[in-house]
Amino acid sequence: MAKKTKQQIIDEQKETIEKYMEVIERQEKRINELVDAEEGTFLHSPTYLQMQERIDFLSKCVELDELIKRTKE
User: Fold this and answer.
1) This prediction's pTM
2) Across the 73 residues of the chain, what is the mean pLDDT of every consecutive 10-residue run?
3) Helix (H, G, I), strand (E, B), or coil: what is residue 3?
4) Where are the alpha helices (DSSP H) in 1-73?
5) Distance in angstroms (rounded) separating the CA atoms of residues 33 and 53
6) What CA–CA distance (Å, rounded) separates 17 from 55?
7) CA separation for the pair 29, 47 (Å, rounded)
């Protein structure tokens, strides 16, 4: 078996690094897709919608209370 030169070893290592970088890029893309999908799922979930309705209701209650206080003054 012939002994590898330093340049051959360097070239092999570069190829390996390039392959790993491609894998990392694919994984990052997939992770970002999953994060985006999860956020979209939550925004349309019944729990989130119910919380939004509750927040709107409580905001209207505060506005009504402030209006009542102003009219009494």
Assistant:
1) 0.50
2) 86 96 97 83 85 96 92 82
3) coil
4) 6-43, 46-72
5) 28
6) 51
7) 28
Number of helices (H) and strands (E) in the chain: give both, helices first. Answer: 2, 0
State the amino acid at position 49 in one-letter form. Answer: L
43: its two tokens: 């925004």
Give the single-character DSSP code of 45: S
- Note whether 42 and 48 are within 8 A (CB): yes
Give the amino acid at 31: I
Please report where in the chains the tokens 């070893």 appear, as a residue: 9
